[in-house]
Specification:
The complex is a heterodimer of chains A (181) and B (313). Chain A has helices spanning 3-17, 40-52, 65-72, 87-93, 111-115; strands at 78-81, 99-102, 119-120, 126-128, 133-137, 155-158. Chain A is an alpha/beta fold. A four-stranded mixed β-sheet of chain B has the order 5-2-3-6. A two-stranded parallel sheet of chain B has the order 1-4. Chain B has a two-stranded antiparallel sheet with strand order 7-8. By secondary structure, chain B is α/β, with parallel strands linked by helices. In chain B, 23% of the residues are buried. Chain B is 39% helix and 9% strand. Classes of the chains: A alpha/beta (181), B alpha/beta (313). Strand 6 (155-158) of chain A pairs antiparallel with strand 6 (101-105) of chain B, so a sheet runs across the interface.
Chain lengths: 181, 313
C-alpha cells in the first residue's frame, strides 16, 4: 500500500465513520449592501474607501473621462491596454506621445515586455463600496485591460490601484462616476 | 547576486530593494510556479489566494504552468461559502475591512491561456500602494497568510522560529512540522510560550483549539525528555514542588517562610535580585513580593465560622 493510499484510506474511513449531519449554515452575515447599486450613498461610500486606501479618485462625466485619463497618466511614457478597451480610452492613453501597447493582440506580451511598461488603463467588472474593492475578471466581454490574471473566470480584487490607474468605468457601459455597490 | 548595484550598502532598506529587483528578474523568467492556496471551492473548481501585497498573484500568474498544493482542509463546498471566509478572515486577522489582494482562478481555456492571452497588470515593487502604519515587506513572502496575522503576535514579542511562523499558530505548527529534538531545541520550548489563557481560541473564527494543542505538545516534550539520566534543574524543581505541595503541613510551613521574601523586596514590592537558581528568573524579570497574608490566613480572617482545618482528609 502506498503512502497515498494510506493517507486517503484514513481520510475516507474517518469520513465514513462520521454520520452526523452538518448543521445548516446561518447566512445572517452581511450579504447585501444598505444602498442600491449606483445610488449616491453607494458612490460616496466607495470614494470614501478608495481615498482611505490612498487612491486618487476623480469623479468625471463620460465626456471628461479621456482628459482625466490623460491627466492621471502624466509622467508615464508607456501604457498597456486590453484589446477590447473602448477606442476613446485607448486614444486618451496615447495622448502626448505615450506608447500604447495592446496586450494579447496579436499575441500576449511576455513578462519582460510587460515589465518595461509604466502604466495600465483598465475598466472594472464591478466595484464593492462597502469594502472599497475593485474587481476585475477574465471574461472576454470585459473591457478590463491587462485583463485578469490569466486563467479564465478569474476574478481578482484589490483595494487600491495605482494612482495612475483611474478607477471609473468606461463610458461604454455606465457613467464613469458610477461604481456599482 | 551578480546584478547587485555597485553602490550597495548594508542599509536594510537598500538591501531589501536590491533583493527585490533581483528576485523580480527571477520571477519574470520562471516558467513554473508552485504555490499553496487559501481556498479550494468544490462546486466551481475555483482556487483562491488571499494576500496583502499582490506579489503572490504576480508569482503564480506569470509562469505558464501553475502547480497548486492544496490540503483537503482548504476545501469549501460551495462558492457561496467563500463569502463567509472573505468576511471573517481580514477582520479576524489584520482587522481590515477586506483582504487587500484576492485572486481566484477557475481553470484555463484557450481564450485565457497565459501563453496567448493578456497578462495581469503588474506593479513594480516600489510602486505598490502603501498602506498607513504598515511596513512594506520583502517581495518573497510566503503564502501562509493566516499564521502571521493572528492578533496575538501583534501584542507579544515574536519568538524566533525556524519556520518563520510566529504567533500562537507557529507555536503549535512549528514543533509538529520540524519536531522537538530534545531539551536544548528551541522548538521544544515553543509549547510553553503561552499562558494558556485561551485568548487565541476566543478570537479564532475557525476555532482551532490552540490551548489544547499546546498542552498536548507540552506532554510530548516532557515524555521525550524522560529518558535523561542526568536530572536537570527543571526536574529537581518539579520534584521539590511536588514534595512540598503533596503535604499540607509542609505546604503551610513553606508558605509562611515565603513571607520572608517581603524583606528582600524593594519599596516597589518587587524582588529584583535573587541568588542562584532564582537569579535565572530575576536576571530578566522582577518577582513580585509575596503578599502580607497567605490565602489560608485570609480565609481564616474572612470566614471565622467555617471549618478551619483546611486540610484534606
Amino acid at each position: 500500500m502506498s503512502s497515498r493510499d494510506a493517507v486517503l484510506g484514513r481520510i475516507r474511513a474517518a469520513l465514513a465513520a462520521d454520520t452526523t449531519t452538518p448543521p445548516p449554515i446561518p447566512r445572517d452575515y452581511i450579504r447585501t449592501g444598505a444602498h442600491p447599486p449606483g445610488s449616491a450613498p453607494a458612490i460616496e461610500l466607495m470614494v470614501d474607501r478608495l481615498v482611505d486606501y490612498k487612491a486618487q479618485v476623480h469623479q468625471v462625466s463620460p465626456a471628461e473621462l479621456g482628459d482625466a485619463i490623460d491627466t492621471a497618466l502624466t509622467g508615464q511614457r508607456s501604457v498597456v491596454v486590453a484589446p477590447d478597451l473602448h477606442p476613446d480610452l485607448t486614444a486618451a492613453a496615447g495622448r502626448t506621445g505615450r506608447t500604447v501597447t495592446t496586450d494579447g493582440a496579436p499575441t500576449a506580451l511576455t513578462p519582460n515586455q510587460l515589465d518595461r511598461i509604466d502604466a495600465v488603463v483598465t475598466t472594472a467588472t464591478v466595484a464593492i463600496a462597502l469594502s472599497g474593492t475593485i474587481v476585475l475578471d477574465g471574461g472576454p466581454a470585459r473591457a478590463a485591460a491587462p485583463s485578469p490574471w490569466s486563467p479564465t473566470s478569474t476574478s481578482s480584487s484589490c483595494t487600491p490601484t495605482r494612482s495612475s490607474t483611474p478607477s471609473p468605468k468606461p463610458s461604454t457601459d455606465s457613467t464613469p462616476s458610477d461604481p456599482s455597490p | 547576486m551578480g546584478d547587485a548595484p555597485a553602490d550597495l550598502t548594508d542599509e536594510p532598506r537598500r538591501l531589501a530593494m536590491a533583493a527585490r529587483e533581483h528576485l523580480r528578474r527571477k520571477f519574470l523568467r520562471s516558467t513554473v510556479a508552485i504555490s499553496g492556496t487559501n481556498f479550494g471551492i468544490a462546486d466551481t473548481g475555483t482556487i483562491g489566494v488571499v494576500e496583502s501585497e499582490g506579489n503572490g498573484r504576480m508569482c503564480v500568474t506569470l509562469p505558464q504552468t501553475l502547480i497548486t498544493v492544496m490540503g483537503i482542509e482548504k476545501i469549501l463546498p460551495t462558492f457561496t461559502d467563500l463569502e463567509v471566509f472573505l468576511q471573517l478572515l481580514p477582520r479576524s486577522s489584520t482587522g481590515e475591512r477586506m483582504n487587500p489582494y484576492t485572486s481566484l482562478w477557475t481553470g484555463v481555456t484557450p481564450a485565457t491561456d497565459p501563453r496567448t492571452s493578456p497578462h495581469p497588470a503588474r506593479q513594480r515593487p516600489h510602486q505598490r500602494p502603501g498602506r498607513p502604519g504598515r511596513p512594506r515587506r520583502p517581495a518573497l513572502h510566503p503564502l501562509l497568510g493566516l499564521p502571521q496575522r493572528l492578533p496575538g503576535l501583534r501584542t507579544h514579542r515574536r519568538p524566533r522560529l525556524r519556520l518563520g511562523l510566529p504567533g500562537p499558530i507557529g507555536a503549535v505548527l512549528t514543533p509538529q512540522l520540524t519536531g522537538m529534538h530534545g531539551h536544548d531545541d528551541p522548538n521544544s520550548t515553543l509549547p510553553y510560550a503561552s499562558s494558556l489563557c485561551g485568548a487565541c481560541y476566543d478570537v479564532c473564527p475557525v476555532k482551532i483549539p490552540i490551548p489544547d494543542l499546546l498542552v498536548e505538545l507540552r506532554g510530548r516534550a516532557v515524555d521525550a525528555d524522560r529518558g535523561r539520566t542526568i536530572p536537570g534543574g527543571w526536574d529537581a524543581a518539579m520534584k521539590a514542588a511536588a514534595w512540598v505541595m503533596s503535604n499540607p503541613t509542609r505546604f503551610r510551613t513553606v508558605e509562611k517562610g515565603l513571607a520572608a521574601g517581603r524583606l528582600v523586596a524593594g519599596p516597589d514590592r518587587k524582588i529584583k535580585h535573587l541568588p542562584f537558581p532564582g537569579s535565572a528568573w530575576t536576571r530578566t524579570k522582577d518577582l513580585p513580593a509575596p503578599p502580607k497574608q497567605t490565602f489560608r490566613q485570609w480565609w481564616k480572617d474572612t470566614h471565622p465560622t467555617t471549618d478551619q482545618t483546611g486540610d484534606p482528609a
